[in-house]
Amino acid sequence: xxxxxxxxxxxxxxxxxxxxxxxxxxxxxxxxxxxxxxxxxxxxxxxxxxxxxxxxxxxxxxxxxxxxxx
Length: 70
Description:
Blueprint: E1 20-24, E2 30-35, H1 36-45, E3 49-54, E4 61-65
């Protein structure tokens, strides 16, 4: 039996077209609900990426991480 793994690309940075998100920082701390532009500023300030990890959440959840290393 063969098993196939499909890597799903997650929306990152400017690909995220939401008004607000729940933000989790790179240390795993919840920073709360904020405008996506503010979350992006925080991620860029840490030289990291904003990644949409739970698009169906209410509100959707983004995490700050180094997505280029995944």
